[in-house]
């Protein structure tokens, strides 16, 4: 038998074995998957102890076939879980295959567990030693001062409408507001800050932030910016605390990371002061951009 025929024979014999292996894997996964009745039972467990502000995640995260049973219970169904934001909010329910633990969890401690037939329900609460959140910039967006810095003048945006600051007549995307945005693999609650055109800075300033030991800033493009054909220019993001510039970041047009920066503000702890965020881009087409910031005790 020639080498070529030998390879062909081995390949022909392998195909049935591969098919059998995949069939066996499908049967195994099907045997592990909860039934609709079991998902319903898990949802009832959560509903009985539900509190306003609770969130439901799935373990593993791709095991979301039970999500419809948790309607109204704030289920997270994105590709990833934003554990930073969840540990700010409060309690988190993990629901999934029996024994599964959520990936990447931090800042939360397991306080309750219930093993049903094929589903495990876990309840997590913020760790008692977690520092206190002193100032959530997104929540306090109405305290901000928004300014468009033109070459010859500064234009203050003084119209607050629909959870956003507008300059004059409200605009659907040329504003600074509270939005939900697909960024870094999941839907996030962000401060929407679409840059202006021709490199003119968009400035968002909080004049009286209460400082603790650290300032945590997150920022990045929305997925639509990364996917857009108009990948013409990057966005530059700057953060100033008092008179000190603490972040200068220019994001590549293909950057799909939700970035985190932790700034040491222990020297200002207990004081109030100004924090300014500036967003610029040479071309504003499809530059969907957002950020968040929090001051921690």
What summary fits the major beta sheet?
Answer: 8 strands, antiparallel
Shape: globular
Number of helices: 4
Order of helices and strands: HHEHEEEEEEEEEEEEHEEEEE
Q: What is the residue-averaged pLDDT?
A: 87
Fraction of helical residues: 10-25%
Structure classification: alpha+beta
Low-confidence stretches: 18-31
Binned strand content? 35-45%
**Radius of gyration using CA atoms only:** 24 Å
The number of distinct β-strands equals 18
C-alpha end-to-end distance = 76 Å
Query: For this structure, what is the CATH class of the largest domain?
Result: Mainly Beta
> What is the CATH architecture descriptor of the largest domain?
Sandwich
CATH topology of the largest domain: Jelly Rolls
How many domains make up the coordinates? 2
Keywords:
alpha+beta; 297 residues; 2 domains; 39% strand; single chain; 18 strands; Jelly Rolls
Structure in words:
Strands 5, 8, 9, 10, 11, 13, 16 and 18 form an 8-stranded antiparallel sheet that branches. The protein is α+β, with helices and mostly antiparallel strands. Strand 8 and strand 9 form a beta hairpin. The chain folds into 2 domains: 91 residues; 164 residues, Jelly Rolls. It contains 4 helices and 18 strands.
């Amino acid at each position: 038998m020639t080498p070529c025929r030998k390879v062909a024979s081995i390949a022909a014999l392998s195909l049935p074995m591969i098919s059998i292996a995949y069939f066996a894997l499908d049967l195994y996964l099907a045997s592990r998957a909860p039934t609709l009745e079991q998902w319903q039972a898990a949802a009832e467990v959560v509903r009985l102890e539900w509190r306003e502000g609770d969130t439901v995640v799935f373990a593993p995260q791709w095991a979301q076939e039970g999500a419809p049973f948790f309607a109204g219970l704030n289920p997270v169904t994105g590709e990833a879980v934003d554990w930073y934001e969840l540990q700010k909010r409060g309690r988190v329910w993990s629901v999934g295959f029996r024994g599964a633990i959520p990936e990447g969890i931090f800042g939360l401690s397991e306080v309750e567990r219930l093993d049903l037939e094929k589903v495990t329900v876990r309840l997590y609460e913020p760790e008692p030693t977690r520092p206190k959140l002193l100032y959530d910039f997104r929540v306090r967006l109405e305290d901000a001062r928004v300014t468009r810095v033109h070459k010859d003048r500064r234009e203050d945006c003084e119209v607050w409408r629909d959870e956003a600051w507008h300059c004059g007549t409200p605009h659907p995307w040329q504003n600074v507001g509270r939005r939900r945005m697909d960024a870094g693999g999941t839907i996030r609650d962000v401060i929407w800050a679409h840059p202006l055109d021709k490199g003119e800075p968009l400035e968002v300033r909080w004049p009286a932030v209460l400082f603790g030991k650290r300032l945590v800033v997150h920022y990045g493009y929305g997925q639509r910016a990364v996917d857009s054909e108009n990948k013409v220019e990057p966005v530059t993001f700057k953060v100033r605390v008092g008179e000190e510039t603490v972040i200068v970041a220019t994001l590549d047009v293909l950057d799909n990371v939700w970035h985190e920066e932790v700034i040491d503000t222990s020297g200002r702890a207990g004081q109030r002061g100004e924090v300014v965020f500036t967003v610029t881009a040479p071309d504003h087409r499809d530059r969907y951009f957002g950020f968040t910031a929090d001051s921690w005790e």
